[in-house]
Amino acid sequence: MRYSLTVCLIILHLITEGTSFPGPPLPDIDTCTPRGGTCVNDTSICVGFTDTWALCRNSWTCCKPAPSTTHPEPPQPDTDICGKVTRIKIKHFLQTSRIVGGQFAEEGEWPWMVSLDDADGHFCGGTLISNQWIVTAAHCLERKVIPEVNLTLGEHHKVVMTGNEELVQIDTWIMHPDYIANVPGIPYDIALIRLVHPVDISDHYIRTACLPISNLTNIDDINSDCYISGWGSTRGTADRRHLQHLNVSIMSTASCNKSWEGDILDSHICAGNGNTGSCQGDSGGPLVCNISGQFVLYGVTSWGDRSCKAIGFPDIYTKVASYLPWIEKVIETHNDVEQNLGEIMGSFIRKILDIIVDFLKKSVESFTANK
Predict the structure, then answer these.
(1) For the chain, what is the radius of gyration of the CA atoms?
(2) Phi/psi-derived region of residue 58, left when phi > 0, alpha when psi is between -120 and 50, beta in every other case
(3) Which of 10, 39, 247, 363 lies 20 to 30 Å from 257 when distance is taken between CA atoms?
């Protein structure tokens, strides 16, 4: 009772004296300007975009210019060779760069990136592997229906449009038939999305990643030139609306299994050390490796530690090579169905036209005979 009475007296004194409550001073910090922004007190004058993660003094807002590349626009590539980045010269990233912690990608740096959005915004990534097919994680599509999912190709910044984006429509999607949610290790976490119409894949900003060769079953030896990318959570250390990327190292399945207590299968790839890497919202996105100048899709972001910063717990990716027969069968089956339907429709239309022509011919003959 004495403590409660004391608190009441202090509050009464502060009210009557017109003094503010004691507490720590507001942070006198500016992280906006060092990151290339300008602090403004009116967001309507911000020509670019507001960076909610950068701080300004006096509760002002950090305004940053629209993201753009520092490189001049090169000639159109006019080639659809998979795995080629044609917009810029690929850099070799420092191991300290990461999605959680943030290094911004440049526009056109990962042209096979796909953003999956619903009414709440971006929720997963994907990889364009042909002019009509996308690979993503099966868990991204569970409890979703096609009409509520939007796909964007050529995306760079989730708020600032550069004019190189393309919204595409989903024809259908196929989750791996053996995928079951919440099974230890989450095997078979892969799905395919078919677009209604083929897209142009010979530009700088929308291109395809290569699929791995069919006889590749182990990539433990590939350890130096692999990358992940996405718009997933950065745990508050960067603006996740701007595409982030990371150079990652592949960990052996045996070492990874020691961390994850036996949940790792031969159909998994482990990358990183847990303190940097993928996070919520990066699921379904690509793990690509640069092989002789072409980027090959080796993994699909699947799962990891929820904190995204657990040292010693690598991120887990679905190994695409393990599912090549399934991928090829699904694509071939749908292409065959489309071709058969086309042939059936063509034959049907030809028969209708023959009937119409025959009817018109007989009508003309009848009219001539009665004239």
Answers:
(1) 27
(2) left
(3) 247
Closest Cα to residue 314, out of 284, 267, 275?
275
Indicate if the pLDDT at residue 137 is higher than 60: yes
In this predicted model, what pLDDT tens digit does every residue of 44-75 receive, in sequence order? 889 888 887 778 888 898 998 877 666 678 88
Q: Tell me how far the alpha carbon of residue 266 is from its chain's centroid.
A: 24
Q: Is 195 helix (H, G, I), strand (E, B) or coil?
A: strand
pLDDT attached to residue 307 = 87
As given in the structure block, the two tokens for residue 307 are: 């904190």
Strand partners, 245: 229
Q: pTM, whole model, 2 decimals? A: 0.75
Q: Which residues are catalytic?
A: 139, 189, 283
Task: Give the domains, in start order, of the chain with CATH numbers.
Answer: 103-329 (2.40.10.10)
Exposure pattern of 3-41 as b/e (b: 16+ CB <10 Å)? Answer: eeeeeeeeeeeeeeeeeeeeeeeeeeebebeeeebbbbe
* Strands in 57-162 per DSSP E: 61-64, 113-118, 121-128, 133-136, 150-153
Q: What DSSP string describes 233-259? A: --TTSS-TTB-EEEEE-EE-HHHHHHH
H or E segment and range at residue 11: helix 2-17
Q: What pLDDT, in 10s, does the model give residues 243-291?
A: 999 888 899 889 999 999 999 999 999 998 888 888 999 999 999 999 8
Question: Strand pairing partners for 367?
Answer: none
Query: Whole-angstrom Cα distance, residue 331 to residue 323?
Result: 12
> What secondary structure letter does DSSP report for 90?
P
Exposed / middle / buried, residue 134 (Cβ in 10 Å: 0-12, 13-18, 19+): buried
Cα(204)–Cα(133) distance, integer angstroms: 18
Which residue, 65, 99, 37, is CA-closest to 278?
99
Q: Length of the chain, please?
A: 371
Candidates 184, 187, 315; CA nearest to 250 is 315
